[in-house]
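Table 4 source record.
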Amino acid sequence: MDETPETDEIRGTAQGTAPVPLSVLDLVTVGAGRTATDALRTSVEIARLAEKRGFHRYWVAEHHSMPGVASSSPAVILAHLAAHTHRIRLGSGGVMLPNHAPLVIAEQFGTLEAMAPHRVDLGLGRAPGTDGATAAALRRTQRPAEGADDFPEQLAELVRFLDDDFPDGHPYTRIHAVPGPVQATSPGGVQSPHRPPVWLLGSSGFSARLAGALGLPFAFAHHFSAQNTVPALDLYRESFRPSAVLDAPYALIGVSALAADEEKEARRQVLAAALSMVRLRTGRPGLVPTPEEAEAYEFSPMEREFIGSWNANVIHGTADEVRAGLDDLQKRTGADELMITGNAHSGDVRLRSYELIADAYGLPGEPAAEA
């Protein structure tokens, strides 16, 4: 099967000595004593760095009702990043489809495609990206699980809107997502018919199987579901059927990784991020604490057990240690791309981490200055 332009946008090219393309997943984390404005400025700085250093794409994840995560509106953030970058691919990792009407997503990402042609990815998830009560508020229903149950139908509807190809007789035949392909077929139309590639995201087997059956690229959330990574990727590859989009499977995995100039400092930063996760998992979400607060915190035995388990899947240390950990993970999973998320209290720490990882792999651009 011949590859299409859309396939070229999906498959990245490894840079430097990296085994596969490297990308960035941004949660727009907000640290204690910092504002959402600070976090968004950091996102722009990291996106610019990622573009300069040869990272393939930069995705933003949808979350809600979490004080320490300012990424509730991916499309808005992506528009902001598009205005501050020129080449790097931008996308959602992901938009949680059950939270939104498919037409709205098609319009938002059609607008992004018009802003940044051939640079936009539409990654879709079926989880709410929040707790059940918040999901109910988002969806204006007391039965939010229904949205996840009919995810395949919602996905099919969204793709129809993106392609503007509802069949004759369908209730939506005369409804068009604008900007979109309909403008190319209107009298005098010169709009490009191109639309963003669709990815399916998941942390279990459901989306892996669906992505394979539809011949779509797949992104797995290894950073919070590491025990399911290999089974899900195996299921995706076994289920894969060639499509107009891909002739072979293409899977990336989200990876928590943080590099610092010294191993001790990396451990301090990772402990603070883990404390933030402890609080979230116990119903006390807040801003990402400082390393000093984390060091002074009295962890219960159960919390310490959680911290140990959580940080076992966070690749951290010096740049060389992180590079070795990423290389090993790629070999174990066979992932076609690694999407790195580096969570820390300080934006400067996150920026430095991506600089060090880029240097460790000899990615193009200016090496980071010595600290």
